[in-house]
Amino acid sequence: MIGRVIKIVSNQYTVLYEGKRYEAVAMGKLRLKQSPVVGDFVVLEELEGKMCIQRIEPRKNQMIRPSIANVDQAMIIMSMVDPVFSCQLVDRLLILIQHAGIQPFLVITKVDVCEMSEQMLCWIEDYRHSGYQVILHKKGEENNELKELLRGKITVLTGQSGAGKSSLINTYQPDFEIKTQSISKALGRGKHTTRHTELHEVCGGWVADTPGFSSLDFDRLSVQDLKDAIKEFEKADSCRFRDCVHENEPGCGVKKAVEDGTISSIRYQHYLEVLHLIQNRKEKY
Q1: Domain-by-domain residue ranges, the chain?
Q2: Average pLDDT by stretches of 10, the chain with 285 residues
Q3: Is residue 245 within 8 Å of residue 268, measured between CB atoms?
Q4: CATH class of 223-284
Q5: Top-tier CATH class for 2-56
Q6: CA pair distance 257, 267, nearest whole angstrom
Q7: Which helix (H) or strand (E) holds 4?
Q8: pTM of the model
């Protein structure tokens, strides 16, 4: 029996197998090596009347915060207004998401609050030209494009605080916000909070109930990691030097692609900002 872990509370695992949920425990020898996380495919076996997790199948990716594996995509939820849209935040999230081997897409909320500015239209067009899927979402209205994106996938949520993540998902799964709030309230009591991670079924797929990335932490990224995480750079011709960081080197294919409009100048500028963060970090140690 190979099922998927969809919920963990303390050391109790809920595993979905052929549409049925099983409460299981992880074998001690397994926990010593590697504990299961939400999203894992695991091998179940019944021993002495209880379901036991015997083995974790190989993961295609894994995130640390929240602790979740085999993620298909990340939904970056940003508001058009209140809070104002931030290209810099989107692009930094794109770096972390793509570095983790996860497919991102962008959902912009509150588009019905006021008329869209020319600047906002330019930003949307810039992302779409760069190959990113952008969905404009009106409060309380279901979006068929988004429903299809969620179907059959594991999706993590990230983006601005106040952009309406719970409100958006609640449009498609009315009890989502109620369930997550009640769980948070129950587990928040006492000095020691029980560890809880869960996937919720939404539009035929699964959505993580915690933000995809709790902080913009680039401490684990090398310069090479950063370059590899900018998928737009794949559009550029090869650089003259193999160790080119696409800043001041002659014969840089990326800079040429920026100049001719193949690569977004906005994304490139934000790449340079993160590059300098990483380079300055290395100089400190």
Answers
A1: 2-56, 62-211, 223-284
A2: 92 92 88 86 92 94 84 94 92 92 94 90 96 93 94 90 84 69 48 61 86 65 94 95 94 97 96 94 60
A3: no
A4: mainly alpha
A5: mainly beta
A6: 12
A7: strand 2-9
A8: 0.86
